[in-house]
Write a structure and sequence with these properties.
With 118 residues, the chain is mostly helical. It has a domain of 59 residues. It has 2 helices and no strands. The longest helix is centred in the middle third of the chain and has 59 residues. The chain is rod-shaped. The mean pLDDT is 75.
């Protein structure tokens, strides 16, 4: 009577094959999680940039519409965020800004004068 033995096992080679498959699976899952995390951060960054650009476009459109209507454009979002950002050095950072010698506030980098002082 030749009956199959129930004492047969895969042995050392079976164990090593299973071990290397488990290590490979672990490394693949770890790599996939890192890539998914990076994709998530990139998509969040792209969404944030798109929102900022849309807000800037909307603010610019509103500012231009106000200028066409003749309304003052003081108090735009840029001025509200940083009250002393447009001041000349030594003005004290009071948010009111100073005037250049020609009666215009600030000067642009391209050499042209800024908007007239009120």
């Amino acid at each position: 009577m030749n009956t199959p033995s129930s004492m047969v096992s895969p042995g050392l080679w079976g164990f090593l094959a299973f071990f290397f498959l488990a290590v490979a699976l672990y490394l693949l899952m770890r790599n996939m999680n890192a890539r998914m995390r990076r994709m998530s951060y990139r998509s969040q960054e792209l969404a944030r940039r798109a929102e900022e650009e849309e807000a800037a476009r909307r603010a610019d459109k509103e500012r231009r519409a106000a200028q066409r209507r003749g309304e003052p454009t003081e108090g735009t979002s840029e001025e509200l965020e940083e009250p002393g950002a447009g001041d000349s050095p030594g003005e004290g950072g009071d948010g009111k800004g100073g005037t250049d010698g020609d009666g215009r506030r600030g000067s642009r980098e391209d050499g042209q004068a800024g908007e007239p002082a009120p």
